[in-house]
Structure formats: structure tokens, C-alpha cells
Amino acid sequence: MIRLIFYWTAILFLQFVVFNHLGFTAYLAPQVFIVLLITLPLHISKPYQVLLGFILGLIADFFIGTPGIHASACMWLVMIRLLLLGAQDLKEQIANHLPYNVHSVGLSTFAATTAILVVFYHFYVFWLESIGAINWFFILLTTLVSALFTLTVIGVVQLLSDKSSGEF
């Protein structure tokens, strides 16, 4: 339990202190903290997963200054995650109370699911932020650059994580 709290705290710290202040370019706004929702253990009930998504989104909104955008995006991410996971054969992982990570489901399955969720999340957030003055080129470019960076960080975190728990 201590490792789980440390893992969540470390990811949130990296997101709100490091990744939110990179400032390389206007097109890079990675949302790495969503790895916490993507890798939730598979045995957690669906309503509880949605509630966790909402709470994590509210925390992100508080630190990033986006009223409700991340709460909405996190809830949608969890809903789409549930749909994607419903199409996968995860009985063994659920029975063993495993998290959804590269070690428990395999690289190709994890990478495909994560890529879909990360691209969706970034597109949804940038689209909501630009309502009223939609610039499709900016939204698509920011989504692509931020999603690629986020996927790279998630990949590194997964490769460095403990096989049994999915945490550092």
C-alpha cells in the first residue's frame, strides 16, 4: 500500500511540478498523470473507477487551472477504457487482482489500448480548451506532439516498473 501511495504521489508530482512547466513549445502539454487511470487494477468496480477518474480530474483541474476540463476528460477516459478492456480477454488478470500494465497483458495489447486512450484524452482536452475559437491545425498538432511525448514517458515508466505490481 505504501508503494502504491508513493507511486501515485510521484506521478502526480512529476505532472504538476515538471511536465506542466516544460515550456519547450506551445504544442507540448503532456498529461502523463492519466497513466494512473490507464493502469488501474482490473478488479475495481466500474462505478469506483469512474469516481476515481472524476476525483483525479478534479485534482488536475485544481493544479492546472482548467475548471472541469480534466474531470470531464478523465471520466470519458475511464468509460472508453472500460469499453476497450471489455473487448479483451482479461479473466486471468482480473482473478489475480493485477493492474492493467505491460507486464500483465503484454506489450502489443497495452500499447494499442494506451495509444488510443492517450490520443483521445489529449484531443478531448485541447478541443474543450479551444471551444469558441477552434483552430483545428493547432488542436491536431498539439494532440499529436503531446500524445507522443506522453506515450514515451508512459513507456519508460512501464519498462522501469515492477512486474508484480506495475509500480516503481
Give a verbal description of the structure.
With 168 residues, this protein is mainly α. It has one domain (34-160). Helix content is 68%, strand content 0%. The protein is built from 8 helices and no strands. The protein has helices spanning 2-18, 35-38, 46-64, 69-86, 91-95, 102-105, 107-129, 136-160. Helix 3 (46-64) packs antiparallel against helix 4 (69-86) and helix 7 (107-129) packs antiparallel against helix 8. 32% of the residues are buried.
Output the keywords.
single chain; 168 residues; mainly alpha; 8 helices; 0% strand; globular
Structural class: mainly alpha
Question: Which outline best applies?
Answer: globular
Query: How many helices?
Result: 8
Assembly form of the protein = single chain
Helix content: 55-70%
- Strand-residue fraction? under 5%
End-to-end C-alpha gap: 12 Å
Give the number of DSSP strands: 0
Global Rg: 15 Å
Low-confidence stretches: none
